Amino acid sequence: MSSAVVHEGLRKIMPGGGLSGRRLGDGITMFIVTGLSLLLLLYVGFGQGKRTYQRFQIEKLTAQGRVLQNSIETYLRSGLPLKQYAGFTILADPIVALKEIDAIAVYDLAGRQLFIAVDKSNPALPAPSAAIHRVKQDVQFDQASNYYQVILPLRSRFETVGSLVVMSPTTFVADRVYAMVPPLLWLALGLTLVFSTAVWAAAPRLARSRIPWLPIGYAVTFLTMAGFVVASLIGLYSDGVQGKAQASAFTLAQRLKEVVDLNLDFLDLDGIDKGFAGFGRANPEIRRTALIIDGRIQVASNVKDLGSPWVADPRNFEYIVDLSKLERPNQFSLAVEVPKDFVYEQVRTSVRNFAALFIASGFLAGLFLQVASSMQRLRSPGKDTARAQVTFLASESSLVFVKPIFFLAVFLEHLTYSFLPKFMQEAATATGMSVGFASAPFVAYYLCFALSLIPAGHCSDRYGPKPLIWGGLVLSSASVLALAVPLDIFCLAILRAASGIGQGMLFIGIQTYILAVSSPEKKTQGASIIVFGYQGGMISGMAIGSLLVTYLGPQGVFMISAAIGFVTALYSMLLVAMKPASVRVERGFNVGIRRVASDLGKVISSGEFLKTMFCIGVPAKAILTGTITFALPLLLDQQGYGLEEIGQIIMLYGIGVVASSTYISRLVDRTGRTETILFAGAMLSGAGLVLIGLTEPNLVGPGPFGTVLVITGVMLVGVGHGFINAPVVTHVAHSELSAKIGVNPVTTAYRFLERLGHVAGPFVVAQLFMFWGERPQVIAGIGIMTAVFALFFIAWKVQPPMDALGREAVR
Predict the structure, then answer these.
(1) How many angstroms separate the CA atoms of 642 and 455, rounded?
(2) Phi, psi of 201, deg, nearest 5
(3) If we measure between CA atoms, which residue out of 232, 206, 215, 181 comes closest to residue 34?
(4) Which residues pair with 802 in a beta bridge?
């Protein structure tokens, strides 16, 4: 490697060449990374807040519409026609007087407007929703032309005869939610400036300190921002809950006010207690409802409160409506209470999303923090000679450049994994095929990934790794971008095949590049780039993708994923400038094929190798692609989990792998007991799959306990695979077969053959789903078979063949 190339690379890393320029570069890097993380946090918080507050608004509009719906349906059950209903204006006008409701209208099944009450400001109302022509038994919601429209069915004793539509402008929700954004934006900018300035000012000390101040500072910055976002959401949700409680109280008060106006005695009314009980069932967030007459509770949703005075509870939100008339001596009021815990329960989902986002952003930020730390080490003197210094810097700078590439490549692929199985099922159904064809794109991806490895290795030998790196990124990104276009299942399978080829090219390019530029003492660090890149990219991609799809939809995530890929490809073209001579070995493609075929022929004649392959290696890869990334999203969606919840649950798999891999790798290096470790890993993954299978509806089913089982099961599978991923390579590398024919042929053949599991996993699971149905018991069955294979692996000792004299035959 020439010193000119090295100096050129270093010049690109350290703009300006001076200490101040380098420190400024650190500050700018941290500003970008931290700013993007905090903006993503704010975006997720804003989206979550808007969804929840909008739900409160819809529930409030529904509660208001129930007043008219109940009155009209009581009339209709008497056998009278809808168009002759009297009293609509009397009931509708007080509701329309509320600031968030612009109109209430009644339509028959033909879509003809029979009644309407409009706000006095005379707003420009939208056309009625098309749902009035297909009224269902349940309440429907439509959002168009900047209006929310809540459609309530109107039923007689025998049939649905029309609909009631409540119209509310979307600006009421938007203005309240957007009001919390500007202060948080300024806060995000301030925190980002403080953190990046601290990095700029303290860069020399950070480089010498043994305490990881950069990760600590980033965590404090992120958690501070998250705390303020959560506080803003609590305020937002409090407004929403209290507004809904007020609207519900207003609805009930309007009905009770008629009794007061007619000078009737509430205690003489038959069924008023049942009405209060029904009000509580219709508004489950309301803890207490009471009618207070002269300071004493006379009617209440909780019979234990009868006869006692109303006492406010500071743990609850309280709303009281005065029903009294001036000319009557009695004092009447209606009181409702909503527990503040209900607000915090709504925040819980946001906190869970923020926790997942913190982990994902932590991996992303950790990547760039590692890059920054490596750059600081690059500037630190300590080599004896100028030539040694140049060599050291060259190896370090090469690894620094390549770290983000593989991480972001895996990240862009896994952004789509929380919803891709369901997306493919819908595409298969739209094409007129069975849902079993949804596995075809997954099989095509993994098959083409495996088949591209050998040709990619040949191209890397001839032309160097750089064309494979940026070419693979471009191909993978373009194929993901094309998924945003409506296509049939066959075109989607072709696109996924192209993405598999691109990822295979990239993998070989990164691997070749690392091996070529790493100095002997940096080989382990180079290998860790692939390990960290895959697991970190998978965890971050699943977490962030599952959150973004909720707000952007699949097409939006596809476009973001592709944009990340194209930017990464540009990065690799500009900064990965070296073409290591050590990889430019002219060798024919046929030679490479013959070499791989020869290696495969040698290893498949070994019973011990095949036992390891088909009892441990292939099942582990099939479980990853067939159950974790293909089957599990479908099952969780079927059980009612949200897309963000699906991504977060699958993310736990990667966390389990990362958590166990480090410890297990050290244990294997210390003890060498790979067989026991592999057996334990297979049993753990099998047990995890059985736990997931227990969520079968006729067993545990969905619910809190079912969620605990799923989470525990996914974590166990991840931990089990952490026991397998690295130790299995060590196991085959230290086998008798490796001693005979060499470590490289055996490990290369193993890496190639284990791809059979990647390819077979989605196909096998799809066929099982077609035969048994999409049920968790299929996953439990796979777990049991995994355990059986593990027992077979540990129990069956393969003896090498003997020659005629009883000696071990040499292959």
Answers:
(1) 41
(2) -75, -35
(3) 215
(4) 808
Strand partners, 335: 290, 320
And the tokens for 766? 């799809």
> Which helix (H) or strand (E) element contains residue 220?
helix 213-261
- Do the beta carbons of residue 286 and residue 337 sit within 8 Å? yes
What tokens were used for 555?
């097409």
What are the chain's domains?
Answer: 400-587 (1.20.1250.20), 598-802 (1.20.1250.20)
Question: Tell me, what amino acid is at 679?
Answer: F
Per the structure block, which two tokens stand in for 742? Answer: 């060499």
Question: Quick one: 515 exposed, middle or buried, by C-beta within 10 A (0-12, 13-18, 19+)?
Answer: middle
Strand ranges of the sheet holding 316-322, from the earlier edge strand across to the other edge: 296-300, 288-293, 332-339, 316-322
In sequence order, which residues have a C-beta less than 8 Å from that of residue 430 and are 6 or more positions away?
Answer: 488, 489
Residues 6 or more apart from 612 whose CB is under 8 A from it? Answer: 678, 728, 731, 732, 735, 750, 793
Report the first-to-last Cα separation within the chain, whole angstroms: 41
Tokens 């095509």 -> residue: 444
* Nearest of 526, 284, 659, 260 to residue 272 by alpha carbon: 260
Q: Is the pLDDT of residue 544 over 70?
A: yes
Tell me the average pLDDT of the chain: 79
Q: Is 786 helix (H, G, I), strand (E, B) or coil?
A: helix
Biggest CA-to-CA distance, the chain: 119
- For the segment 82-105, the average pLDDT, to the nearest whole number, is 84
| Cα torsion angle, 739, 745, 750, 753, sign | negative
| Encoded tokens for 317 | 């939100």
Q: Does an H or E element contain 321, and which?
A: strand 316-322
User: 3-state class of 155 per DSSP?
Assistant: strand
Whole-angstrom distance, CA of residue 538 vs CA of residue 534: 6
Residue 206: other Cβ atoms inside 10 A: 19
In angstroms, rounded to a whole number, what is the distance separating the alpha carbons of residues 106 and 114? 6
- Residue whose C-alpha is closest to residue 439's, from 773, 766, 775: 766
Which of 38-47, 599-608, 692-701 comes out lowest in average pLDDT?
599-608
316, 339 in Cβ contact below 8 A?
Answer: yes
**Pick from 180-189, 355-364, 540-549, 642-651: least confident:** 355-364
289: Cβ contacts below 8 Å, ≥ 6 apart: 252, 276, 279, 280, 300, 301, 334, 335, 336, 337
- Model pLDDT, residue 437: 85
Report angle CA 745, 751, 755 to the nearest 5 degrees: 140
Please give the residue that has the higher pLDDT: either 205 or 525.
205
Query: pLDDT tens for residues 146-163?
Result: 888 999 999 988 888 899
Q: Is the C-alpha dihedral spanning 299, 305, 308, 310 positive or negative?
A: negative
The angle subtended at Cα 411 by Cα 370 and Cα 685, nearest 5°, is 100
> What pLDDT was estimated at residue 315?
82
- Given a contact cutoff of 8 angstroms between Cβ atoms, the answer to whether 289 and 279 are in contact is yes
pTM: 0.73
Which pLDDT tens digit goes with each residue over 671-681? 778 888 999 99
Instruction: Say how many C-beta atoms besides its own lie within 10 A of residue 234's C-beta.
Output: 16
What are 588-615's pLDDT values in tens digits? 555 556 666 666 676 777 778 888 888 9
pLDDT in tens, 386-398: 444 444 445 555 6
Residue 571, judged by CB atoms within 10 A of its CB (0-12, 13-18, 19+), counts as middle
Q: How many angstroms separate the CA atoms of 289 and 338, rounded?
A: 9
By mean pLDDT, which of 43-47, 375-379, 753-757 is the weakest? 375-379
